[in-house]
Design goal:
Layout: E1 2-8, H1 15-18, E2 23-26, E3 40-49, H2 73-95, H3 99-102, E4 119-126, H4 128-131, H5 134-145, E5 149-155, E6 161-167, E7 175-180, H6 185-192, E8 198-201, H7 207-212, E9 225-237, E10 245-247, H8 248-255, E11 273-277, H9 282-292, E12 302-304, H10 307-315, E13 320-325, E14 333-334, E15 336-339, E16 342-345, H11 349-353, E17 360-366, H12 374-384, H13 386-394, E18 404-405, H14 415-421, E19 424-432, H15 442-457, E20 465-470, H16 477-497, E21 504-507, H17 520-526, E22 528-534, H18 536-541
Parallel strand pairs: 4-7, 4-8, 10-15, 11-12, 11-13, 20-21
Antiparallel strand pairs: 1-2, 1-3, 5-6, 6-7, 8-17, 9-13, 9-14, 9-17, 15-16, 18-19, 19-22, 20-22
Helix pairs in contact: 12-13
Length: about 550
């Protein structure tokens, strides 16, 4: 048998192409890549003929070492050709594996230039915001937690792609986690095309995308949608720009081309230059939804696939303005953002963690209901764990590990709210709810356990917990007041089930909005329950049942 050797050039989809593997193909067979089906480029210098010897009964991996004669090089090549032409397709057919994730496991290092087998255990695709540095760091930490050694991060075929490798215990060759970060939209096309195991997105899945993935499960449910961290879309300008804040409406008018000169927003004179992420970016999708509200981005905007490049461009342009995720601010300056009916806030760890900042957002991992391999579920669980969330924080995003903070209470806050929070600290998260319901969203379900852990770490301090419920302004004031109390009671009931009895449950209706009630996104932010904890000295000295703070059985507060 004569075999020809070839190389695949389909680097975007084929692992052999990325690793520049030489592939043996028997003469007369289609000269295509066994993994992806693409045409191969021939290597005319590598052609071998089969020696006229009887094939042994054993497979190439189990040929006895006690044979009288050392097999010739031609025989080795012939056996390799047999495996490629016959044995490998049979194995693939029997196991039902797709070539994209298994072909690397079956490579035989018969050619002198071939590299050791590569075992791809996990593939992630989607958001550049998440996939640029966060997910590679999570992958490194995950492999280390599994006991892997020789862990390293390698570049992929294209700049937005990375390969994280490590040798797992008991293995001879590295196992790889492949990461392709070409934008949030590609997370869902990759899941649909079976070219990734986990989708990365810096915005929530859209209804039409969820519909296309319906056979994989309900992608909006807690079992398929996982919040890996929080981020704030920072509006950035050059560090020398004296501007300190803009309203959301002013930002919209700038990025749609309605305002073109800095003098119109109180800064120095001069034309405004716009910098924006590309259309595949989840950052742009979120910005388009929250800020542009359907209006088109100005045509003169410079577009970027890479977040770091955009930030550097704004930092180097005194006339520039852009938007970016928190970890990518670098040498630019983030300004405060104001909304109608709410005060201006800068994107800080606390304002993003509580999602009070008007341009805060969640970062997602999406998985099918049925695990394609054990590492998919293991990786998600690791990312959501305290150890994984420490990695999230180390990469500049806002982790979901709960901490206590002392925020500045707004002047316009109700007097009762000011009094109750005067000697208390706020937990670095809020619970949010579905429109018009007391039903929690997906993030709240995981956050409850995080809150319980913090309370347990502080000596089971349930008797110091204060729950404050809020509603949006839709509906009558009395309805909103009752709804805000009911939401706080839902969280109280959940804590009671976990052995914690809060000291106080109080509703404030639609008072103290953190965002505009004129938009869906703003109303969603205003439907919340805040958690506060009295300081220990106050909790032991002050009466818990203050008459102006305890709700009666109807949910209306006694004043």
């Amino acid at each position: 048998m004569t075999v020809h050797w070839g190389r695949c050039t389909n680097v975007n989809k084929c692992k052999d192409a990325k690793q520049q593997q030489s592939i043996p193909i028997p003469v007369g067979a289609a000269f295509i890549c066994p993994e992806c089906g693409s045409a191969l480029q021939g290597e005319s210098a590598v052609v071998a003929k089969e020696a006229p010897v009887k094939a042994p009964a054993a497979t190439p991996e189990t040929v006895p070492a006690t044979q009288a004669k050392k097999p010739s090089a031609a025989l080795v090549v012939a056996l390799a050709a047999f495996v490629v032409a016959v044995a490998v397709p049979i194995v693939l057919l029997v196991t039902g594996f797709s070539g994209a994730s298994t072909w690397g496991k079956l490579h035989l290092a018969t050619a002198p230039e071939a590299s050791p087998a590569q075992n791809v255990i996990l593939r992630l695709a989607g958001s550049n915001t998440i996939g640029d540095a966060l997910v590679p760091s999570l992958a490194e930490a995950f492999l280390k937690a599994q006991g892997a050694t020789n862990i390293r991060v390698l570049p992929g075929a294209n700049p937005p792609e990375k390969i994280v490798q490590g040798v797992l215990p008991g293995d001879a060759f590295p196992s790889s986690i492949d990461i392709a970060a070409h934008g949030s939209a590609t997370a869902f096309t990759a899941l649909a095309g079976n070219s990734c195991d986990i989708g990365m997105a810096s915005r929530r899945i859209k209804p039409d995308e969820a519909a296309k993935l319906a056979l994989m499960g309900d992608m909006t449910s807690a079992g398929n949608e996982h919040i890996v961290g929080l981020d704030g879309i920072a509006v950035i300008v050059n560090a020398a720009n004296p501007l300190s804040e803009l309203s959301k409406d002013e930002i919209k008018r700038i990025f749609t081309g309605d305002i073109t000169d800095w003098s119109k927003v109180g800064s120095g004179r001069g034309a405004i230059k716009i910098y924006a992420r590309d259309d595949k970016s989840g950052t742009f999708d979120t910005f388009k939804s929250i800020v542009l509200a359907g209006a088109p981005l100005v045509a003169s905007a410079r577009r970027f696939e890479d977040s770091n490049a955009l930030s550097d461009a704004v930092a180097g342009d005194p006339s520039g303005i852009g938007f970016i995720g928190l970890p990518f601010i670098h040498n630019a300056k983030a300004i405060a953002v104001a909304e109608k009916g709410a005060r201006a806030l800068k994107p800080t760890r606390l304002t993003v963690a509580t999602e009070d900042y008007s341009l805060s957002r969640r970062l997602y991992l999406y998985t099918p209901s049925t695990a394609r391999n054990k590492f998919m579920r293991m990786f998600v669980e690791f990312a959501l764990s305290k150890q994984g969330q420490d990695v999230v924080a180390a990469n500049g995003f806002v982790a979901q590990n709960v901490s206590l903070e002392t925020p500045v209470v707004a002047e316009e806050a109700p007097d009762a709210y000011k009094q109750l929070t005067q000697n208390a600290e706020r937990l670095s998260l809020d619970f949010r709810f579905q429109p018009g319901k007391a039903e929690q969203d997906n993030k709240a379900l995981v956050d409850l356990d995080r809150v319980v852990s913090l309370i347990a770490d502080r000596g089971n301090a349930g008797d110091r917990i204060l729950l404050f419920g809020f509603a949006d302004s839709t509906g009558a004031p009395g309805v909103n007041q009752a709804l805000s109390v009911n939401r706080a009671k839902v969280i109280a009931d959940q804590l009671l089930q976990r052995g914690i009895k809060p000291a106080l449950v109080r509703g404030f209706g639609s008072e103290l909005p953190v965002a505009s009630n004129d938009t869906d996104d703003g109303r969603e932010k205003n439907r919340r329950v805040e958690i506060w904890m009295r300081r220990l000295s106050v909790a032991t000295a002050a009466p818990v049942n203050a008459p102006d703070a305890i709700p009666d059985q109807t949910g209306q507060a006694k004043e």
